[in-house]
Amino acid sequence: xxxxxxxxxxxxxxxxxxxxxxxxxxxxxxxxxxxxxxxxxxxxxxxxxxxxxxxxxxxxxxxxxxxxxxxxxxxxxxxxxxxxxxxxxxxxxxxxxxxxxxxxxxxxxxxxxxxxxxxxxxxxxxxxxxxxxxxxxxxxxxxxxxxxxxxxxxxxxxxxxxxxxxxxxxxxxxxxxxxxxxxxxxxxxxxxxxxxxxxxxxxxxxxxxxxxxxxxxxxxxxxxxxxxxxxxxxxxxxxx
Length: 240
Fold this sequence. Notes:
cytoplasm, mainly alpha, Methane Monooxygenase Hydroxylase, Chain G, domain 1, about 240 residues, PhoU-like_sf
């Protein structure tokens, strides 16, 4: 890649805009998730509707990220770490869009639930939501800073999110099996629990792409974090 003054400045500006658009997607996904769950807990249909309506903007942002990424690759032909960042960012934007889609699904189910009578036990879903929301927030930060330590911490939460999903889902499964009067509402809550777990998984997927962008290691199907990634994370800490 040509690295003359104005060309390099133009490339850096394009890369900054590219990352900014992707971070907008992350912020929107967080907001949509928050509105969908708050809509359920607070029985607020308006919040649910906001999450649903915002999804069109997220779809357009994903298309824009793809457009910007292709333009960067065609115009500047980046190599090494810059190329990895472009590739990882395009994948990460897809994960943010998927998280927003799941928030829409949650909002739609929430609207159905709040049409009926209030279900006091619905608040049992909050610990799972808080865990997943924090994971997605940390995924946004890990990407923004290309922070290997935060990415690794997220990947290590995989078992935690699965265990919490099982624990909370078990409570609502009993109500469905007993066919209590509100069993349809509890069935919808079970769907919401699964979608929350899936958002946690997407946060981990984002963390894996951050590892790829920052260290060149593809760990998507690895059982353990490679020592080379741990060493790179330690170097980041020492340089901070």
